[in-house]
């Protein structure tokens, strides 16, 4: 946890960055685009179904793991401390 003085310092740095380099600050503040995530799920979910239908169970299972992994990481993101 940050102390009150550290929080004020961090806010001051953020404000200066926003004033000096607004484009960089906006880029760093963006999150992953939701449509890109849903497209990813659609592609790998579709591949899972298609590969299961044609009988390629190994690759279908791999696609299923990728899809499930993306959903789990979306719900519980990895946070480096």
Task: Describe the protein in words.
With 81 residues, the protein is mostly helical. It has helices spanning 4-20, 22-29, 34-53, 57-75. The chain has 2 domains: 1-30; 32-81. The relative contact order is 0.08. The model has no long low-confidence stretch (mean pLDDT 85).
Largest sheet: none
Any idea how many domains?
2
On the 0-100 scale, what is the average pLDDT?
A: 85
Query: What are the segments in which pLDDT stays under 50 over at least 5 consecutive residues?
Result: none
**H/E element order:** HHHH
| N→C terminal distance | 11 Å
> How many beta-strand elements?
0
Kindly state the percentage of residues in helix.
over 70%
Number of helices: 4
Beta-strand portion reads: under 5%
Please state the overall shape, judged from the principal axes of the Cα atoms: elongated
Structural category is mainly alpha
| Rg of Cα set | 20 Å
Sum this structure up briefly.
The protein is mainly alpha-helical and about 80 residues long. It has helices at about 5-20, 20-30, 35-55, 55-75.
């Amino acid at each position: 946890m940050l102390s009150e003085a550290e929080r004020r310092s961090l806010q001051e740095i953020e404000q200066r960055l926003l004033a000096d380099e607004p484009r960089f600050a906006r880029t760093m503040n963006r999150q992953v685009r939701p449509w890109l995530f849903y497209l990813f799920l659609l592609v790998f979910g579709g591949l899972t179904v298609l590969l299961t239908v044609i009988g390629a169970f190994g690759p279908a299972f791999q696609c299923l793991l990728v899809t499930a992994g993306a959903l789990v990481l979306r719900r519980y993101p990895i946070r480096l401390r």
